[in-house]
Each structure stands twice: as structure tokens, then as C-alpha cells.
Amino acid sequence: MSDKSKHRLRTLFKIFIILVIICIVMICAAMGVSKYVKRSVSDRMLSPEAAAELRDIDCIIVLGCRVNGDTPSPMLSDRLTGGVELYDMGAAPKLLMSGDHGRTNYDEVNAMKQFAIDRGVPSEDVFMDHAGFSTYETMYRAKEVFAAKRVLIVTQSYHLYRSVYIAEKLGLEAYGVSSDLQTYVRQDYYDFREMLARDKDFVKVIFKPKPTYLGEVIPISGSGDLTNDKEFT
Fold first, then answer.
1. What pLDDT digit, counting tens, does each position of 192-203 carry?
2. Is there a contact between 152 and 91 (Cβ–Cβ < 8 Å)?
3. Is the dihedral of CA 122, 123, 129, 130 positive or negative?
4. What CATH number labels 41-227?
């Protein structure tokens, strides 16, 4: 092998080592931020019983998830079950169903509200955020559109830390209640994706960009029927 070839190989090896080191540093940084987000709000994670003992909670935010037509997915069904149970326990006077209704043929929030109504919650106590396209946008709109100040957030535990962290950084006093009622398919995938999402939103709440939509204020203290776009039975 010529000296020129040896030099080229050494250069490529050095580049490879540098890239490996950069990857390791980035992974460690991502894991560190994720752990920081979880640790910083760990004292805000409550049992349903402890959450029901809080006073002056404006609403229970149930975070949207996939629906199949009008049928909530198992993960969303568990979130809704947890939210309705907290409402029935008197934890808050209102439910805020926040999810994706950005297309005419896909609607999380009406399915979520119907779930609550079917279980005896009055329609006027169930608000819908049709533009809750992400966890960040849900929390931003909860404060700015629905004028909430103190909230309970219901979602699976892997998602709960980021949700509460975002809410706190946007000016809400937030507490989290886990809705883990079963073992979910692809949980390892959700855990990995959530670590990356914590890193993303850690940066996002520093700059606080506006959500896709804002609009007029609809106080959570009023009637949830103001958010209706169809009749409920």
C-alpha cells in the first residue's frame, strides 16, 4: 500500500472517530435533556385521589390520540376513561378535549366529547379544542384561548412529563394524572419517540412560537357547547 493510500485511510479513520464521538455526545445530550424534563416535573404527578383533593382546578385536559372513524383507539379510550373518572370525582368542573380536527374526514375531538356524554357528562361541561394538533399547541391554546390557569392533564405516563413541563413553561399551573390502564403495543417505539419529543419541546418552550391557530377567547368557565360543531345525542 502506498503512503498516499495509508494517509487517506488514516484521514478516513479520524473522520469516522470524530463522527462517532459527535453521535455519542448528541445521544448523551438528548438523554440528559429528557431526564431533566422528567425530573423537573416529577412532583406534579398525582394519583387520581390526590388530584381530586386539589382546589380551584379550572379543567381536566384530555390529550387526543388516534381514532378509527368515531371510535377512540385503546390509548385514547384509556385517557378518556381517566378524564371522566376525575370529573366524576369532582376534580374539576370542566373537561377540555384537545386533539386533531384539521381535516373534514378525521376528527378526534367530537369522538372524545361523545365518549364523555355517553358516560353521563353534560355537554356544556365538555369543551373541544379542534386545533390541538400537538401537545405544545394544546397547552398554548388552553391558556390563551380557553383562559385556563390551573389544570389537570390526563395521558399515558410516558407522555405526561412532557405535557406538564410544556404547560408549566407556558404559564399554566399543571398537574398530571396517568391513564395507563393496560399494556400498549409498540410501547418501546413510543418511549424512544417521546425522548426525542422532550428534546424538541425543551427548545420550543424557550422561544414560545404561536400555535397554528389562536382565535377568540372561549373561557373554560362558560359553556362547552360554544365549541360544538354538530349536535350531540
1. 899 999 999 999
2. yes
3. positive
4. 3.40.50.620
